[in-house]
Automatic annotation (TrEMBL), chain B:
Localization, UniProt: Membrane
Pfam families in the record: PBP_dimer_2, Transpeptidase
Protein name: Penicillin-binding protein 2
Keyword set includes Membrane: yes
Record's keyword annotation contains Cell membrane: no
């Protein structure tokens, strides 16, 4: 409290410029500033006037696309149902594995003279010696 | 003063009329159609139902409940009304689904499609009324398929009659007929009352039950003496009456109860029927004999599948399971010893390989099973025109992975189990084996070496 009082202690109204000219100058400056601000705001609004409707259209479109995506997801699930695939396979002449004729064949030994055929197994390149202690 | 009161009275009447009309409107909304906003939110927030192989069976899309697989497992799923489930799992798990929880079923869409296709192919050809199939994973008791015919599409449930919505494998109760013989023989062997090679005198008919008895007939021509193995092969009722003769009534009844007949399957929440076993006081010689060939006892396809699954699972009974992670509270129980179960399976393999290799068997694969042709009771008497055609089987015999039960009711053409249910079983098994790429039995290789 004491600090505040001391601040206004030396205030002398006679030393403050309160003439009409000064007030008029101030008023003009403030009005000009307000006008500039108002113009800026109106200008900004004018320049961005398409954003809001555009946003609304985008939101509507997003909702439509989400609906379409969901519908398509359901259609895909319906189209790839095992029943449909099964019917399609039979309609295209496919035979089930269990019914297909099968033949088994013995694996024969290599013909003589093929011993020189290089082994399919690569030669070991790392040798490990283990010492028991 | 009087005028003032009259005006107030008029105003109150108007206000009362407006309030009443408002109430009427609100009631009408609830009665005929819930306000759209509420309905949409409730439906949209509802949980999804998926199969074990990850296919979506029921989901909410754009505020509507849809069933992308169409008729696949339609009766199991049931359907939804305006805001609540009305039948099937939509009804049984209504509160859980409403809370946004998802439901994962043990059903496999491939196996389910195979079962439904096989039924829908065979039933119209044989001019039958309806049918059901259950496929179980032997080692776990998980239900891989629960199929009903006629088909039902929950997307358009209002277009279908009430009968088509019925989840038949869980709800339809019928006398199992001869398929029960495999189970009774296993029980008798477990008690040391018979062996596969024990021989019995088996005329084509036999009188059983003394004063209140009746004559038992066999349908398939067979030799006058049969071993237990052959009794299964020829499905001899007379032979079965001999096998159960030393069986105490309460003991045999307990075996049937342990197989799961006459009691609710231990599947939480899911609606299922119990079937019936007669009370012990009714069990005289005749009831014991008739029960041994599947008359005087009733079951559902699910119960029959669970019972045969116990044989396939080395004698260990497992409660059927339809929802992943929701197992029953009953622990697994041993009904017959593992070696007895294995012996019975080998006997049932011979039933197919010696009797109906082309109707039920798949070339190159070891399959065991038993047929049944049960007369249906109509107005308290066994009908001579309406039959249930049943087949139970498993694959592979040495260590089964699949247990399959087929039932078709009311066929007018070729109604015998071997002519109708067995080929349906074969069709399903072929599909599943093909999908698995199951290797056939190794034949002796043909060598090209000279």
């Amino acid at each position: 409290m004491t600090v505040w009082r001391s601040h206004f202690k030396g205030l002398d109204l006679k030393s403050v410029d309160l003439t009409e000219t000064t007030w008029r100058g101030r008023a003009i400056r403030y009005v000009a500033i307000y006008l500039v601000l108002a113009l800026t705001l109106v200008g900004a609004r004018y320049l961005t006037q398409d954003i809001r409707p555009g946003l609304r259209v985008a939101l509507d479109r997003e909702a439509t696309l989400v609906t379409q995506r969901n519908d398509l997801a359901v259609r895909v699930q319906a189209l790839e149902s095992p029943q449909r695939i099964r019917e399609w396979a039979f309609a295209n002449g496919m035979v089930r594995f269990a019914e297909a004729p099968k033949q088994s064949q013995a694996i024969l030994p290599l013909p003589p003279g093929s011993a020189a055929t290089p082994s399919l197994m690569p030669e070991p390149r790392v040798k490990v010696n283990i010492q028991w202690r | 003063m009087e005028v003032k009161i009259r005006n107030r009275s008029r105003m109150m009447r108007v206000v009362a009329a407006v309030l009443f009309l408002g109430l009427m409107w609100a009631y009408a909304q609830l009665e005929w159609n819930v306000p759209q906003g509420v309905k949409r939110t409730l439906v949209q927030a509802r949980g999804t139902i998926t199969s074990s192989d990850g296919k979506v069976l029921a989901q909410s899309v754009n505020g509507q409940r849809t069933y992308p697989q169409g008729r696949l497992a339609g009766q199991v799923l049931g359907m939804m009304g305006t805001t609540n489930g009305l039948e099937g799992l939509e009804y049984a798990y209504d509160s859980s689904l409403q809370a946004g929880k998802n439901l994962k079923l043990t059903l496999n869409t491939g196996v389910q499609a195979a079962a439904e296709s096989a039924l829908s192919k065979a039933i119209p050809v044989h001019e039958a009324e309806y049918g059901s199939v259950v496929v179980m994973e032997t080692r776990t008791g998980r239900v891989l398929a629960a199929a009903s015919y006629p088909a039902f599409d929950p997307n358009h449930w209002r277009d279908y009659p009430l009968d088509a919505r019925r989840n038949r494998p869980f709800l339809d109760v019928y006398e199992p007929g001869s398929v029960i013989k495999g189970l009774v023989v296993a029980a008798a062997m477990n008690e040391g009352l018979t062996t596969p090679k024990t021989t019995y005198d088996t005329p084509m008919r036999r009188f059983v039950g003394g004063r209140w008895g009746s004559t038992i007939n066999d349908a398939v021509e067979h030799p006058t003496t049969l071993t237990t193995q052959q009794i299964l092969r020829y499905s001899s009722n007379v032979g079965m009456s001999h096998i159960v003769e030393p069986f105490k009534a309460d003991n045999l009844r307990d075996y049937l109860l342990n197989y799961g007949f006459g009691r609710y399957p231990d599947m939480p929440v899911v609606p299922a029927a119990t079937g019936q076993i007669q009370p012990l006081r009714n069990w005289d010689d005749l009831v014991r004999a008739t029960n041994a060939f599947g008359q005087g006892i009733s079951t559902t396809t699910l119960q029959l599948a669970s019972a045969y699954n116990a044989l396939a699972n080395d004698g260990l009974y497992l409660s059927p399971q339809l929802i992943e992670g929701v197992a029953g509270s009953e622990p697994a129980r041993e009904i017959v010893r593992p070696e007895i179960a294995r012996t019975t399976r080998t006997m049932l393999q011979a039933v197919i390989e010696e009797g109906i290799p082309t109707q039920a068997g798949v070339k190159g694969y070891d399959i065991g099973g038993k047929t049944g042709t049960a007369q249906v009771v109509v107005d308290g008497k066994y009908s001579s025109t309406i039959y249930n055609s049943v087949f139970t089987g498993f694959y592979p015999v040495s260590a089964p992975q699949l247990t399959i039960v087929v039932m078709v009711h009311g066929a007018k053409l070729d109604y015998h189990g071997s002519m109708l249910a067995a080929p349906v079983f074969r069709e399903i098994t072929t599909d599943v084996l093909s999908a698995w790429g199951a290797a056939p039995r190794v034949e002796v290789p043909r060598t090209t070496e000279k």
